[in-house]
Amino acid sequence: MYQNLIYEVKDGIAYVTVNRPKAMNALSNEVLDELYAAFTAVNNDPEVQIAILTGEGKAFVAGADISEMVNLTTLEGRAMMIKGQNVMNLIETIDKPVIGAINGFALGGGCELAMACDMRIASEKAKFGQPEVNLGIIPGFGGTQRLPRLVGKGMGKYLIMTAEMIDAQEAYRIGLVEKVVPAEELIGAAEKVAKTIMSKAPIAIQAAKLVINNGIGLDILTGVAFEGEALVAPFSSEDRAEGMKAFLEKRPAKFNNK
Ligand code: CO8
């Protein structure tokens, strides 16, 4: 079904692998369409609880497809920008967690794709950067907004204005990724985190994602009030009863994972 992705579901985890290694997994319009379809499937499939997004070969994703962008008119470029933003926004806002397993180059639109994930685990071979200013443009798939929110305004400006490429350890140091692991352990490490999250009450995980995403731009008191209202549904759930009972009975909780 997909020309540029591998999409597999196993034991509740959807594995989405960008598979266009000859072009460093660059995001053409077709790749963007397929990513949109894949994450819509992640959202709609009741068998899927969480997704792991990675890339095949040397790159996670080396950006938007420059050979495709070079000939676009301004309006066509705008359409591609909207398409890319829709993909990133979809990944960020679907109910289910998405873990970025960053295997190699995550540049431009690739760094933006990584930042749209709920969290990032990097191979020690991964490299990050926003090289758009080298091409006479600025990030257009959310980078000017998501990067400063993750690493701070000064570091965000530094990376976007210098186009400097940083390695995984530096990305970890500045808070762009949450873990760095040896290359051969990358998918196993992502699966371990996925399984930990899957062992929790799904209603609590959904509420946490929603509140963190939507609360971060609010003033503190409005954000805290929003958190309180979002707690009401988990607090009324069977999973709350089970989680608290299990704690008191000194046994692992068995949540309703569907
Ligand atoms: N687009 C198209 N093709 C690419 C891209 C890309 N982003 N990146 C690599 N490729 C291709 C190369 O052209 C090359 O093709 P070929 O074999 O046909 O010559 C092949 O992939 C292998 O690449 P290299 O030979 O360059 O491999 P290296 O190992 O020497 O270097 C790098 C790897 C460092 C990843 C290098 O390829 C590179 O710098 N790539 C470009 C990175 C970049 O500038 N990315 C940002 C793109 S702009 C962007 O993402 C903006 C998003 C918002 C746009 C919104 C408006 C539409």
From TrEMBL:
SUPFAM superfamilies, per database record: ClpP/crotonase (SSF52096)
A Pfam family per the record: ECH_1
Transmembrane segments: none
Keyword check for Lyase: yes
EC category name: lyase
PROSITE patterns attached to this UniProt entry: ENOYL_COA_HYDRATASE (PS00166)
Pathway entry: Lipid metabolism; butanoate metabolism
CDD domains associated with the record: crotonase-like
Alphabetic keyword roster: Lyase
GO BP terms: fatty acid beta-oxidation
Gene3D superfamilies (UniProt xref): 2-enoyl-CoA Hydratase, Chain A, domain 1, Lyase 2-enoyl-coa Hydratase, Chain A, domain 2
EC number(s) from the headed UniProt entry: 4.2.1.150
Reactions it catalyzes: a short-chain (3S)-3-hydroxyacyl-CoA = a short-chain (2E)-enoyl-CoA + H2O
GO molecular function, one term: 3-hydroxyacyl-CoA dehydratase activity
Subunit structure: Homotetramer.
Family per similarity comment: Belongs to the enoyl-CoA hydratase/isomerase family.
Name of the protein described by the UniProt record: short-chain-enoyl-CoA hydratase
Organism: Sinanaerobacter chloroacetimidivorans
